[in-house]
Amino acid sequence: MKAPLPVCTIILSFVISLPIMLAAQSDAVDKEIAGVISGQIYDAETKQPLSAVNVFVDSLLVGTATANNGKFVLSYLQPGAYRLVASRIGYETYEEAVIVLPGKLVARQIALRPTEVTGEEVTVTAARREQTAQMAPASVVILNARDLRVRSVTTFDQALEMVPGVAVFRTSGVSVQSLSIRGSSDVAGGGVGNRVLLMIDGRPALTPDTGGALWSLVPTNFIDHIEVVKGAFSSLYGSNAMGGVINVITRRPSYRAMTSVDLGYGFYDRAHAGLRYTNKLPLQNQLELSHSGNRGRVSYLLNLSRKESDGHSENTAYEFYNVFGKMLYDFRQNRNLELSLGTVIADNDYPHTWLNNLQPFRVAPEYRDDRQQKRVHSADLLYWAVPSARAKYSSRFYFYRNASRSYFNQPFDLQTNVDADKWGNLTQFDYYLNSRHYLIAGLDVQIDHVTSSPDTVMYGDRRVNNAAVYLQDEINLAPPLTATVGWRYDWNHLVAGKTLQQSSPKLGLVYRPYEALAMRLLVGQAFRAPSIAERFFQYELGGGTHFKPNPDLKAERIGFSLETGTRWRLGDFVDVDLAYFRHHYRDMIYWVEISAEEGVVYTLFQVRNLKRALIQGLDAGVNFHWQRRLHASLNYTYLDAKDRSSDRDNDRLAYRNRHSLFFSTDANAGRFTLSVHGQYRSKLDEVFLYPRDIPQGYFVVNTKATMRLNDLYQLSLAVNNIFDTQYEELERYRMPGRNWILGARVQF
Fold this sequence. Notes:
It is built from 6 helices and 44 strands.
């Protein structure tokens, strides 16, 4: 079978050939008797307009591609009967018989349905361009907006915890200390040691001080879909992409005015009388509003949300507000400007370890009034253009600010302040050389500036400058075999400190002997520069742990990264995905206790470069899908994470579950939808701070039932942790037991 041409090739070939075809048509057809077909194409489920849809008349050499607002025009058509075709990867092809009459307009509003075939979903993250997941050279998981609605998801981290290979470690229901893909990230608090890159529409969304992400603060109601790409991707995305990339693609404005309102109200089950921290019933609620529409060349989207919880235990209450807006302006069919603005206001209790294992829902009295405030602001301006039939250009300027305040009453009676700013530009040029080569070149520039106080606890005033260039060539070697060759050079400079440089190559191969089978191989290298927090952090107030700064930290590297896997569709209902991964770390950044070395009686840590570490394992998944009535999946991850240093204290790296099992079932019958999903994680083999309270293995199941009353209204009931499992993800932090949320949705 001949390999499909890249989608950009098809789109651009239509663009360059259209003037010639129209000229030929205008010579042959009298304008007074010519007909026109025009319209707009949108997603059947989300009602968002679809760009880059190929629209053509199958019996004529006449075609075009939809603009950013989903609109298209086919002019100068000779009267007669035709078959109109609209196609886009990731969607079912639309075909319709149309009659073109002399001097008349045929207008159509076309809804394309997303494909039901797993592996044919569209991803833009794995290769920095649009392709199907089946053709990606790495493991890719895609969660769409419908997945989030039918499952019990309140905060963004809850959406990610059900992705195979992803592990979330929290100190409360929403306070995420670490998110890891295949054991890549460490657990050191506040996102320190993070090796997973979070992006919002392709823009980095990591805090400049710790290099972590505010996972629970990403609003869920503005998400179109989430792309989780596993493996070392420094060759495209640089530092922090050692373990993988999570790219949140936000919704586009709908083709018509549309408003939705989502409400949720619920409570946590009371603990046993002797364990309760309060006699009141702990409550939780949420409100989300969304409105989108268009005015001429301008289309817009506005999302507002508020989430509040009393908390399942002491010092776990929170209140979040989020505002997000997006505006698109179409200069013309091949020019577009997009502006996104966002603000998050978060107030929450400061999470502390439990009072003791007999009182896991209480904290020490002196910690009960400790709290945190976060103010996050972002701005993103994107311009893209298709200046010729072979070229595409985009440039994105962005700003990200995280202002954090922590208040500690007793015994510290102090306040910590962190103001972290990130400025950046990402410019990329795509060039379709010929049927064998698709080239990408890019420039990535970032400036991180952090001011913090007090100096005896935090990191002071620091600035890091980053610059990188990257190149990639996607080569069609033969009809069933595609190779991707990439390289990136990164320059990282700590002002008044060290300068780090790194080259990250990769080679990817995808062999697709027939449509249902794709075998992949990805090898390369990766790196991560140490964060400001890892270099200069001195004292962790939540647990009272001391740290010795280490400004001479080197960049850690993956000297050799390997993934090989197979995605195989078995008939119309089942597909299987298998992968083996292996990463050899050099100079791995890791936390080392140095109390004895420094001759102190208190616990003292320092961040250092280990000599060697090895993380390897297996991913195996089976998916079953029957039309839109039933979707089921079962996934298993085996992880072997070892410290290979000669002077090591332990063989195992801390906070890596050796065995993880995930399952999900979504059943739809008429107006009713039932979703059941769960996870099992084995006991941790190694932890940092409290080895006597090491978390045990656990099994947690969540469920949600939804009833659609009509096209406007729907009701839902979610039960999280339905079996009321008592467990910890991190030592001495009890996670929520069974809790209930009654929801309602209105869309008009």
